[in-house]
Amino acid sequence: xxxxDGKATAKTIRSELKTxxxxxxxxxxxxxxxxxxxxxxxxxxxxxxxxxxxxCAEVGIASFPHRLSxxxxxxxxxxxxxxxxxxxxxxxxxLQLPLPDGLESRPLLERIAPEKDVDGFHPKNxxxxxxxxxxLQPCTPAGVIELLRRYDLPTQxxxxxxxxxxxxxxxxxxxxxxxxxxxxxATVTLCHSRTPDLAEQCLRADFVFAAIGKPRFVTCDMxxxxxxxxxxxxxxxxxxLVGDCDFEVICSTASxxxxxxxxxxxMTRAMLLRNTVAAYKQHMGALxxxxxxxxx
Length: 296
Ligand code: NAP
What we know:
By secondary structure, the protein is of the alpha/beta class.
């Protein structure tokens, strides 16, 4: 079985980006800039934001953190996003979710300028993704596709089952897998909690993608021998972090599989950096408008 090492792959991507950023910064006279808005004291979000700042520093992206108290008003956040949208030193704007109770994320996400939407959550980017047009892609599904690309595991002509239909993982991943391309062109089934025959659906698949949020939910008897299994799940259990797939047993059946941790998590972080550099290049005119990567 091939272990799809997201940690090592993400390190390679960061090193490639570092080289690219150094050249671009010399040419354009400034580094790419990523603004991260963190509201409140959620400990997991604080760790995520710290990691993002560390990743940015490693590749030469300037990070502009905005740490705000949990009782910040919606209008204050709106004004901050407007300011960042207009700031020429900022290429990407990221609103760390979840927000504290009382704040509404949807209107804020829609307020971020689509060309600075490095999370790929703005409806304009999501709509363009669905239509196969160039856009900023959501980082987690982009990380999944990039990992398959780096291991040369094309999905073209294969059957793929995605379990989970969230807007940040499962649904965009199903869209990307169905777009034309070597790492698309799959026949995709999108499963969710109302799928009556989940095990049978998974058993048919050449590729199984799990984004459920339930520890070790996908078991060995749900995976066809030789299938590729990508586990997006991150669940905290007593022993530590585990995925949505029962790694220990599935790894004897699958031909390739991601570990948790060390699989899609680091790839997601790497794709945020890649999106920031892409947004910067477009901002600086190094890319013609709307020539960001369309699909696989
Ligand atoms: P989410 O919004 O809670 O969505 C979970 C999806 O799983 C829903 O579509 C849900 O179906 C489906 N589901 C739940 N129980 C199911 C069942 N018994 N059978 C079939 N489908 C079921 O979660 P998410 O944000 O997509 O995250 C999923 C997992 O990925 C979590 O563990 C999260 O921590 C992890 N994650 C990892 C990364 C990363 O960087 N690696 C990034 C984001 C998320 P319904 O729609 O019918 O409710």
